Amino acid sequence: MESPGWWLQRLGKKMLDERSDSVGDDNEVTPGLTSLRQAAEGKPKMPHVPGVDPREIVEWMRDARTNWLSLVIDSPGERLGVDGFRFDDPDKKSADGAKVSDEEANRIWQENSMDADSALVHYGAMSQRRAFVLVERGDDGRPVLTHETPTQVAVEHEQGNRRKLAAGLKLWRDDWTGNTRATLWTPADVHEFTTKTATPTFSGRAAELRGWDAMALPNLPDGYRTNDIGAVPLVPFINRRNRRPEGFAEHEDVLSIQNRINLSLINLIAAMKYGAFRQRWAAGLEVDEDPVTGASIQPFQLDIRKLWTTDDSEVKFGEFAATDLVPYVRAVEAAVQDLAAISRTPPHYLIGAVVNVSGDALKAAETGLISKVRDKQRGFGESWENVMRLAFRVTGDEARAKSWSAETIWRDPESRTISELADAAVKKASAGVPWRQRMEDMGYTPAQIARMEIDRAADALNAAPAEDPQPASLQAKRDAKQQEDPRTLIGRDDVPDAA
Question: 138 in helix, strand or coil?
Answer without folding.
Answer: coil
